[in-house]
Amino acid sequence: MSGEQLLIVLSTAIAAATPLVFAVLGETLSERAGVINLSAEGTIMFCAMAGFAVALASGSVVVGFVIAALIGALAALVVGFCAITLRQSQIAVGFVLALLLSDLASFLGVPIVRVPGPTVPPLPLPLLSDVPLLGPLLFRKDALVYLSYIAIALTWLYLYRTRPGLTLRAIGEQPNAAFARGADVVRLRYLYVILGGALMGIAGAAFSLDFKAGWSHRHTGGYGWIALAIVIFGGWNPLRAALGAYLFGILQSLASVAQDQFQNVPTQVLTVAPFVLMIVLLVLTSAGWLDRLASYFPPATRRRLLQMLRTSPPAALGKPFEQD
Amino acid sequence: MAATSQPSHAAAPSAAVLPLSLVYRVGALVAALAFVGLLILVVGESPLSVLGALISGAFGTADQLGRVVNTLTVLLLCAAGLVFTFNAGLYNLGIEGQITVGAIATTLVLRLLGEALPAPLVIASGIGFGLLGGMGWGLLAGVLKVYGRVSEIFAGLGLNFVAQGLAIYLIFGPWKRPGVASTSGTEPFPESLWLGTFGRTEATPVGVVLALAALALTIVVMRRTYFGLRLRAVGLNLRAAHVLGIPATRQLLAAFALCGALAGVGGALQVVGNFHRLIPTISGGLGFLGLLVVMLVNFNPWFVLPVALFFSALNVGSLQLPLVLRNVDSTLSGVIQGTLVLSALIGRGLDQRRSRA
Amino acid sequence: MDVELIHIHKHFGEVHANDDVCVRFRSGTIHGLLGENGAGKSTLVKILSGYITHDSGDIALDGKLVSIQTPTDAIRHGIGMLHQDPLDFPSLTVLENFMAGGGGLWLHRREARRRLCEIASSLNFSLDPDAHVSELTVGERQQLEIVRLLALGVQVLILDEPTTGISAVQKEQLFAALRQLAADGRTIIFVSHKLEDVEALCDEVTVMRQGRVVGSAAIPCSPAQLVEMMFGKPLAPPIKPPTAREEIALELREALIRTNTFDLHVPHLAVRCGEVLGLAGLEGSGQQEFLAACSGLIPLRHGSLRLNGREMAHRPYHSFMRAGVCYLPADRLRDGLIGGLTIREHVALRAPTRSFFLDEPLNARLTMEAIRVFNIRGQPNTRVERLSGGNQQRTQLALMPNPLSVICMEHPTRGLDIESALWIWQLLIARCQQGTAILFASSDLDEITAYSDRVLVFSGGRVSEPLDAHRLTADVLGHMIGGKF
């Protein structure tokens, strides 16, 4: 593969990963607070449809994104209400919403199937886009992509450098201890679930208004489930989760390059391959196997290896908070 | 005085509790229907004409009825299997993959033995291998859960992708149709390898028998055997079940294997009874639909049949919708099913919250 | 700051956990709060620190009445509490734990690190700010909590049983730090059941029993006086007939049992068939793990465990069950019974049959028999979570296989009325007469002395030699539970 080709692959990967970045950041926030929002598949799909429809009707991409974020927040509110207030299974409600919203998107989206519509315009950044290598790779994109860079940085900063971020980690870890230190666990959980849902809504609109412009039946099929997997792969850390999203983007963009290289491998196989590979990676990095793998290394390396690779979910993930 | 007032005190709460629970159930149903009705109005149709189209689409002709029955058989098999996993406290979201692998295994057998053996034998071994394939895929999720500590939810979803990828690879690779590969699937099998049907409809008696047998088996096992009782015990309280001496790991794996096996038979029926070939979307979402069915009936096997019948009729009936009514997409069935389950969940939650307070 | 609790009342359902409690804690002193398990001391300090709200009564700080509804209120008034299990975040670092809570947007790590190290070193604690809390010992986690509370400006520091599960060196460090804090004018409230620690550390002591304050004294005072106040009355006399036989049912040698916080070492213990061995001590001193290890639920770290002469260490739990061991947990609905299943379904789960189909006539017969023999107030189709505590315990007992060689039991009669308790012990003694050995943990010392042949005392990560129950006195037992072997 030539250098130029590599650049194209990576550049495409960034574009392909951008919607996912928003989705994994949203899910990371939600799960850090202790609530699994399993509805990602449906939320992203529905918001893709709704965002596109609104942008089409209003002629404004920005309005499309705002509405998509609001709808994502609303879907997350339903998950939050069932999980936090009603203490029902987060898995059950998330799963049902995932199916319901996917179908609802198709049902309501009939009039706009394959209708051309507005997209996010490209916006090469002055000066930065002229930097050799990095310029074309990172800075000849559109505003949404730049926004995703900022979102990654902000989420990381928020989680690890601010006091509310520390409290967020605390309520997903030991809600009782966080309550003892003055955190209003219920309200904060609602807040982050809703915020996470809004980010997922943006992710949906990012598909239909940017990366996969337009709307068709099951337009974003599979991306929600993969986003959930990437959050685990990323160990609930926004940087690593974003890295996972980019890795998935690279797999996808490699798959499209491979189409030219290996004419005899059918396209459909290559389209599914990134999903399969990502899942295999996830299983390989999950705790049980990793411990066994690490046991083959000398003790000194073992500890560092585990620290680097192993991640454990927030201790209170999926559990309702009951103040005693 | 005290003696006379006591019984009425004791009776009062139970008399008051029952109807209130019922109010929440009915309220949930009404809310769901109202929501769906509103949606139909939004796209510019009348709910009544949609209802008419749905009914005629599902039961209008013998052909359509046959399709409802075929959908029902696969859905029943999946739902029956899921009763085991749900009662063991597991969310087997990998069921779609289990159907797919079952279908792949069946296709493999039909391709290998199609010419060599008498047709009924080929079909029987095809269904048998479908069962084994699904069971293996289910056990894989179970092993990942029990020994690899990967949540069964994500192990299952991941294995769905893998199964889907495998099916697509086979359809577009080794098993592609002579000439050009396409999403319409592999070359159809000769009619000798099709399951017999009721008259000219597509409904297959073998499928109906298998599905009803699976459901009966599920009810008997869950209600009448020590195995079913132990499974419920593990699902309700893993720790106490262990203390009481129940081999929890074995029970969990058995639940995965059983569910996978039934889903695998469902996949086999899709091949030998419905599509007569392997297609990329061979599961048709019936595994996920099975999850909805079992959630709606609150894991109780007795109510699986009526709900599954209703959901199958919706699935088949809605296929007609876009032909009859311009603005209504066939995904309305999924919307109705999802809305019903969601509102049932919320209704149940509100009811529990009320009795907690 | 002077703290005054005035006529505090607190009910938990039927239980009067704090009954008209009045105490005064003076600034610059270390005040011990002494009492048995369940005496109401934890409830009292949780009320003061805002974790529990009281039903009635007043709290006064330096003579002014204040309202404390939440832990945050308490901190604002300068009251902080160190819990027995520190309420912290194991997955976060020491520094992050130190910073968690409080207002403001940015985390000022450098400033916080400086503060943390400053306070820690002033108390001679050595804490690595970058270590993860999950890697720390309980003692270090306590030090971190103390440092954190002091950084919040706490003037009144409450410690709930802080010396359970920490090393001797850490205890010395802790005591030195507490003395220093008191000398600086802070009020230290030291909740403990250990006479030894109270004598070594405190200036004053208040003793509670059954929710009431029974007396106060300045230290030093005679230990006998404190023991008398704690236990109130002479211990119940042994009432169990001799049932022990010659054969040995359970034997431990050089056994090492790991608990959450320490390793418990049992050099040698032989329990004879028909014998009852009582396990006394503060909850969380290792009795639970000891019983779990004896019934095969957790493996021995090392050493030998013989059942009826057969080596069982490292054998799985079901081998123990087959060898005739039965474990009855304290938290019946969490560990022992399955909420959602009925009495009959529980009986069926334990039914001695290998058939595939439920033998309903057999189960119905066994269930009716169990309900009749064990006098369970419930129907065969009653779900166990709807039974009262006593009837749940009767159900647990009804589920015990017969015969058994060893029964390991936590709190056999906790939460039961006297009649049920007597009845349950009659039944257990009948089992002993058949040759079953019983090991039971209880926080009720009367129960221990009344029904045991011999007693093991658990304290501070150690187990005593077995003591003859007939020669036990409240004084001896009180001192041993307090850690003086």
Supply the key terms.
heterotrimer; A: 0% strand; B: 357 residues; mainly alpha; ABC transporter involved in vitamin B12 uptake, BtuC; 14 helices
What would you say this structure looks like, in words?
The complex is a heterotrimer of chains A (324), B (357) and C (485). Helices cover 72% and strands 0% of the residues of chain A. Chain A has 324 residues and is an all-alpha fold. Chain A has a single domain (3-309), classed as ABC transporter involved in vitamin B12 uptake, BtuC (Orthogonal Bundle), CATH 1.10.3470. In chain A, α1 (3-32) packs antiparallel against α9 (185-211), α1 runs antiparallel to α11 (238-261) and α2 (40-58) runs antiparallel to α3. Chain B has 357 residues and is mostly helical. Chain B has a single domain, classed as Orthogonal Bundle (ABC transporter involved in vitamin B12 uptake, BtuC). Chain B is 75% helix and 0% strand. Chain B has helices spanning 2-42, 47-59, 62-87, 95-113, 119-146, 152-172, 205-224, 226-236, 238-243, 248-275, 286-296, 304-319, 321-324, 332-356. Chain B is globular, with a radius of gyration of 22 Å. Chain C is of the alpha/beta class. Chain C folds into three domains: 3-231, Rossmann fold (3-Layer(aba) Sandwich), CATH 3.40.50; 234-324 and 402-485, Rossmann fold (3-Layer(aba) Sandwich), CATH 3.40.50.300; 344-400, no CATH class. Chain C is built from 17 helices and 21 strands. Chain C has helices at residues 41-48, 71-76, 94-99, 109-122, 138-151, 168-183, 195-201, 223-231, 287-294, 317-322, 332-336, 343-349, 360-373, 389-398, 418-433, 445-451, 474-481; strands at 3-12, 15-25, 30-34, 56-61, 64-66, 79-82, 156-160, 187-192, 204-209, 212-218, 248-258, 263-272, 276-281, 302-307, 310-311, 325-328, 406-410, 437-441, 454-459, 462-463, 467-468. In chain C, the strands form four sheets. In chain C, strands 13, 16, 17, 18, 19, 20 and 21 form a seven-stranded mixed beta sheet that branches. In chain C, strands 6-7-8-3-9-10 form a six-stranded mixed beta sheet, with helices on both faces. A four-stranded antiparallel beta sheet of chain C has the order 2-1-4-5, with helices on one face. Chain C is globular. The mean pLDDT of chain C is 89. Classes of the chains: A mainly alpha (324), B mainly alpha (357), C alpha/beta (485). At the A-B interface, α3, α4, α10, α12 and α13 of A face α6, α11 and α14 of B.
